[in-house]
Amino acid sequence: MKNKDELILYDSRQRYRDLPIVALVGRPNTGKSTLFNRLLRRRRAITDSTPGVTRDPIEEDAFLMGKPLRLIDTGGFKLEKENHGLDNLVTERTLEIIEDADLIVLLLEAGEFTAEDEEIISLLRPKWSKLIAAVNKTEGGRREAEAWNALQYGFEKLLFISAEHGDNIEKLEAVIVSRLDFSALEPCDPEKNFISLALLGKPNTGKSTLSNRLTVSAASIVSSVPGTTRDVVEGVFHYKNTNFHVLDTAGIRRKSKVKENIEYYSVNRAIKTLDKADIVFLIIDAQEGLTEQDKKIAALACAKGRGVILTLNKWDTMPRVNNTLDKNTLTAVKDKIYFFFGQMEFAPVVPVSALDGKGVEELLDTAIRMYNQLCRRIETAELNQALSGWLEKNPPPSGPKTHFKIKYAVQVSINPVKFVFFVNRPEAVGKAYHTYLCNTIRKSLGYSLIPIEVEIRPSRGEPSQLRHSVGYTRGERKN
Predict the structure, then answer these.
(1) How far is residue 420 from each of residues 10, 202, 370, measured CA to CA in Å?
(2) Beta strands 194-201; 16-17: pairing state
(3) CATH number of 194-374: 3.40.50.300, 3.40.630.30, 3.20.20.220, 3.30.420.10?
(4) CB proximity list for 61: less than 8 A, separation 6 or greater
(5) How far is it, in rounded angstroms, from Cα 431 to Cα 41?
(6) pLDDT tens-digit readout, 317-367
(7) 0.85 surpassed by pTM
């Protein structure tokens, strides 16, 4: 759990520090994730009728009645543990969050109350002063008479809600806001950027271990059970005067191996983090090496223009001679990766051990350099001056069907980085020359670590006119 003074609300209007924390707790399948999504006003947590879908606590920032706060969806509290080790970890994390929360919303289900309900109520008695009891699934007054039986546990007040249908949600929001202290909220400097990192890879490669290492927390549950992480777990940290936002994701397996709905949604959420990320740490098991699935993940990231760092985790487990790792081992591993995945020769390879922290500083230093390249803009005059040299060094083909003239070029966006070349005969520009332009831009203009997009368009007007016609800053993304 991160300290409250490290909690930051990401909002297009304003960012805040020291957000009050509201935790949603209860036994499995009472509708905590549905309520979480309802309060956020978007589908953030995975919801399913299967009990125990939520494992990692899911933290998000919300505005309730115009007030900013940190909302946490916790794993369901179980007495009978099917997967003893993993279920214990889920329960431990829930209890830790209860300790740190400013306000606890206990979600019960209308009907017969269970031993699990009674156990968690007993655990919450020392926190009674910061507790709100809500009985879910009472849409349209359904089972309300039975819901009143919850008063036997000593609650001063009960709220009857329907997370799925929205009944009395505004009343719940009003009660939450009235019970919180917002006096310590501190606005962040709107000019400070956050580098957003998505941790992607196959199951059990150490993504959650690395996430916890970076955020100096236990936000992500770490277990040897493949597929422990189901939803996206977010965190923040600060390194070398730079703010980072981390997205720990579920392991991505081949589509043919995904059988359950829950895993299907987990994988989709993981892939969608590419829309929020600046840089992807593609976590690869160092002993297993690069796989076909890793290639597919990297290709998805590059197609969206995201920076990719091939992160060789568990480097501490690589074979050693006399307790020393051969200096040539990394060179050999890199050569093998680039041989089988030549399209990613620009992507840096960084060995790390998420378990003991070795290599993590180099990983973050590389991420900072990569982010600077993602945000690098080349002025049109400088770009076209460089283009003249490239054309002189390697002019377009001279054949009657293959000849073309490049009139000028502009950079139309950063993060992702995109260039447009205006040509008199776009259809004549072959793949080889297109690749030449991409590689030359990367080497000559300071984009050695990132993917870039080069688009060929029919020429119109001069560069000064182009700024108006294509939108010179179109495609830029704010963090």
Answers:
(1) 32, 35, 22
(2) unpaired
(3) 3.40.50.300
(4) 9, 10, 11, 19, 68, 69, 70, 71
(5) 45
(6) 887 655 666 678 888 899 999 988 888 899 999 999 988 999 999 999 999
(7) no
